[in-house]
Write the structure tokens for this entry.
Amino acid sequence: MNNNPELYAVEMENIVVRFPGVLANDHVNLTLKKGEIHALLGENGAGKSTLMNTLAGLYRPTSGTIKVFGQRVDFGSPGNAIEKGIGMVHQHFMLVPTQTVTENILLGLKEPRFFMNLTKYDQEILELAEQYGLRVDPAAKIWQLSVGEQQRVEILKTLYRGANILILDEPTAVLAPQEIDEFMKNMRLMVDSGKSIIFISHKLHEVNEVADRVTVLRKGVVTAEGVSMEGLSKRDLAELMVGRTVVFAVKKKPQQPGEVVLSVKDVFAENNKGVTALKGVSLDVRSGEILGMAGVSGNGQSELAEVITGLRECSGSISVNGQEMANKPPITAIKSGVSHVPEDRTHVGSAPTMSITENTIMKCYRIPPVGSRLSIDFDSAEKLAIELKDEYDILAPSVKTEARKLSGGNLQKVILAREISSDPQLMIAVQPTRGLDVGAIESIQSLLLEQREQGTAILLVSEELEELMALSDRIAVIYEGEIMGIVNADEADVDEIGLMMTGAHAEDLV
Amino acid sequence: MPRVSIEKRVEDVPRWMPAATSIFAVVAAFVIVGIILRLMGGEPFTVARFFWDATFGSWATFSDTLVKATPLTLVGLACTVAFTMRLWNIGAEGQFYMGAFFASLVVLIPIVPPESPRILVILIMVVMGLIGGALWGFVPGVLKARFNVNEIITTLMLNYIAILWNNFWIFNTWSDAGFQMTPTFEKSAWLPRLSDLARQYPFFSGMTLHGGFVIALIATVIVWWVLKYSKWGYEIKLIGDNKEAARYAGINIARNIILVFMFSGALAGLAGMIEISGVVHRLQERISPGYGFTGIIIAWLAKLNPFAVVLVSILFGALIVAGREIQPSGLASLIQGIVLFMVISSEFFLRYQIKFVREEEPGIEEVRTA
Amino acid sequence: MNFEIILHSGLATGTVLLFATIGEIFAERSGILNLGVEGMMLLGAMAGFATSLAVGNPWIGLAAAMIAGGILSLAHGLVTIHLQADQVVSGLALTFLGTGLALVLGEGLTGQNPPLIPSFDIPGLASIPFIGPIFFQDHSLLVYIGLIFTPLAWYYIYKTRPGMHLRAVGEKPEAADTLGINVYGLRYFYVFVGGCLAGLAGAAISLSISPGWYSAQTTSGQGWIAIGLVIFAQWNPLTAALGAYGFGALRRGILDLQGPPTLLGFTNPLYVNSNYGFFLQMTPYILTIIAVIIGSRAATRQRLGAPAALGEPYIRGERGL
């Protein structure tokens, strides 16, 4: 197939990976040239992570061949892949929180064999880090590090093991725009010193910026293989990803917001580590408006959503329609018409082994028609669930199906249906479209806009700036627990917001 | 050449499977015990025949079996309620003893004069039994709710403490002429038995099946209704499935930990009261041959279904009746251990299925779920 | 109330708890909760006793005890690691199994006198004032082994590579797995180690510290106390030793309270009425509850606590077994 095997670092041919009920990779081909940055593009669920996990030795392909530097390989475990010089940085970091940077990097290695003299290795790692511009303190424990720093540790792990081929899975998902620039520079540095990189992304503009060639996956199948980036527009890429002409803008009707529904004043709160996560946050949300909250994950958004919905303690004032909410239990918020679409749909937003019906009534089981004084009318509950299932186009065998069997998009629809059906005054939606495919994303964005038209006040927390720009009336930016500024979405400037996301105050930018 | 592959289940488990795994577990355990018996020089089939005769062979022996099944049902229900919320109540034994103790106080203090009508005495004993058990459930409940203390250890320790507490009062204050038990209670404290009707219906002579069995059945229906239809039952199930989701849904977790522990303890305490009033008719040192621990196995085997608890309790009641004659004494514990091991091993097949996969299949096999 | 005797006794009886506790620490550090300690201890006690009786050699008895505990714990391992069953229920099943086996196979052992593990002084060290008589005089060999074993266990867990891997497997098995560490294998190994040590603890009772076989009374709940001590010790062998020895000393001290006619000038109620002794017997169990409360509060305060992956089966992605 290839005349010059030395040109290619990796060649994957006809890879098939099959899981129970799912064909994740369907005869996929991918090649990585030595010294290039190759982007693997596709929407959520397209099979990108699966393909790369296979290259990294975590899965065995059902069929197909892999060659590394011209040599046929068959990885039985991640250790084999590491031996061949392949290093993977996963989307969800594989770091032991209670151990130090150095310990994490040394994990699984043969040296030192028994006695751990860490100071010597601390020094080694410090030097390696400086070589590639990845600043980190080797003696720090992982739980003390920021997400960006943790990512550097993950990269150092692979470099320390002599990786020549790096696989980066959604590396910029956790970085602010300016950090992303630094990260791109580091990628170039590594490539210039002889490494080859595959990076997985679903963000078109990044792929546009830095990739040499791109391979696009859609529903497990390759729709573009190793295509050079020259001459490809974002529109072309999007079509390859999704298969139809993608409309980027969801239609938002201009409207006048009404009275203030949510008023947050001077709120301070700690996170689970005991560190201050919110430092004097103040904001208002009016009925019929969407206030978007921009910011890199981990800057206090989760904590803000939690103090408003009663899941976390705080000092300061939080009022909904004039009623004080701060430090009251979640039931108070629920009874006051506050809906919450939580960040974690499986561990917080739903009960995995309970049916769709049982999940649907999670907020309304106390009141008629579903709830009476002592008991629950399950006929009524089922009726409601079926109604919502049809209305929101939820794909599932029946309302008796367990929640954990649903796909991400459908589960999110169940949650959204539940939260909307209570006719809320205020809705707190945290990362509602994270991890979903384009079709589901569009549905959910439309639902949010519909609620806005009906007069609900919505606080929308999202990592996707484009989404915030399209849906919000105003955008607030949070950085290290402080609101850096609140701007009107129409007048907003991406660079300005990006700067605020990394610590600049709005006033300083004028 | 087909290859065996073990894959996670995607579709729902067929409805008959959970019951089938439990039945399989029991059968497998019996087979294993039979093998052990043979290895030790016994005769498994003779033992099996004897087992049947001793437990279900006649109405009289069946009555004995049901007598043993009564406290087991209540303790099984106690564990079912707690386990539904993933609260590991290993303290049913201690709650049983405290229920027995509190119920006995009605006679020992006495709380009502011994000449009082039987229905009054028994009613108050029931209430006291529930209180005693609930109290002994309250302690680990509050420790877990407030301090997140592991309830397995606290409930276990409380078992030992309850037995010692009981011993003190039996040996010291209310001893019957220096023996390790109180004097027999008057008839007004006895639950009615079938043999009470022997003069009218000679068929019932010698049958010790007592009113406690009825109480146990009523409790079964109540527990079933609470878990299946009540709002509280929904909350208990939700907390057990996903504590964080329950909190998010506005449910007060701490309060429910305490209440459910008290509910569970009360049921076990009721079992204790029933053994006192229906069987031994006095407070003594050994009232329970480990009912509290058997209850754990019963609940698990019954897959936390209250009606199944009754059936399984009858089975285990039979084991106890037959085991009275069979040596050695540790055999009961051994059988229980094997049964439980078989149950949890077989649960594997509820989550995974074995498939025969042919290599090199042409074309695409399955369609992805949306 | 002789403090020297109390502390000496504490060291002796505490050694039993020490082995069981540190064994469980190893298992839990790898992520597997093993509640079957009581069953494994009882089985070890019986196996050690019976083997020593049959063979005439207490050392072989000890070995048999360790093997018995280890093999039993492997059943728990198989069920929880590969079959992914609930670890709490499996541990309870193990307790029933171990206890049942011990009682069934141990029929007729009561009253027998097999050769025991010897006790002796350590010359030289036994003469040190204060410490000498407590630590180095007239103790079973197992006590001395325990004293050395504790710091070794601590060093192993915190300062060596295998210890680092152990901790990683219990905190974040995914991280260990992606770096080529055999998570399943290590968990089996440490569950086995825990079982061996529990068996050793049992044999320590029947062949040394409180020699004899008394059916279920041989261990009388010490296995459960050990599990509680793991929480109190916050999974650290040094604090485990502290807890174990302290526990032993407290028990002896409280027992000695029954002797003297007067206590602090007041009539000793225990001297008058021996039935009050039942309340004394409650103390180990009450102490365990207190120990667990202390441990839980410390964990909440310092945001530390159990190994993060404790009690959860590890499943690698969607790969088959």
Remarks:
- The interface with chain C takes residues 19-20, 53, 56, 58-60, 77-79, 82, 88, 90, 94-99, 103-104, 106-108, 112-116, 157, 272-274 of chain A (CB under 8 Å).
- Chain A is about 30% helix and 25% strand.
- The CA atoms of residues 313 and 327 of chain A lie 5 Å apart.
- The radius of gyration of chain A is 24 Å.
